[in-house]
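pinned: reference chain
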Amino acid sequence: MAASGATSLCAFPMVAKAITLGSHAERDLSMDHTHTLEKIQLTYAVGSRYLPEALTGLDHFLRDHYSGLVGHMDPGLYDIMYALRASLKVRSPYQIISGYRSPKTNERLRAKGGGGVAKHSLHMDGKAVDLRIPGVPLKELRDAALELKAGGVGYYPGSDFVHVDTGRVRSWKG
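pinned: its structure tokens
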């Protein structure tokens, strides 16, 4: 895949450092979607360049699984996910619970009253993902995400996932 027109490495110094030190020139991700049952494994960046075709594929994979609408995901989110797997020293695919959410889907989920759905959710901006890694205790995944200091980390043990986003550094338990 050509890297022309790609953007550069994410703006999170801790994540960029983790990626630069001890990682390969190619950055890859592997994910299984718990709702669509789709699987994806690809190289999304080489060196400091994101691969546009890979980003397009990831946008589609992380689409709103309720409506099918595809949003544009923040590539910095993939760097967080890459660094998280590297820090945990695992190669298992992520299990994705939720990626992009359209405003309509987000409002519908809020109206259901299940909790944990913010009015101005970063899922609607393509800056958040809810995930887990089989075989990795949820607390361990949460702690590793917190150590990155790269964005928001929500811990949802009752729903069996961790939320990570590229917003400001903060944490909460849902």
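why pinned: The domain at 13-173 is CATH 3.30.1380.10 (Muramoyl-pentapeptide Carboxypeptidase; domain 2). DSSP finds five helices and eight strands in the chain.
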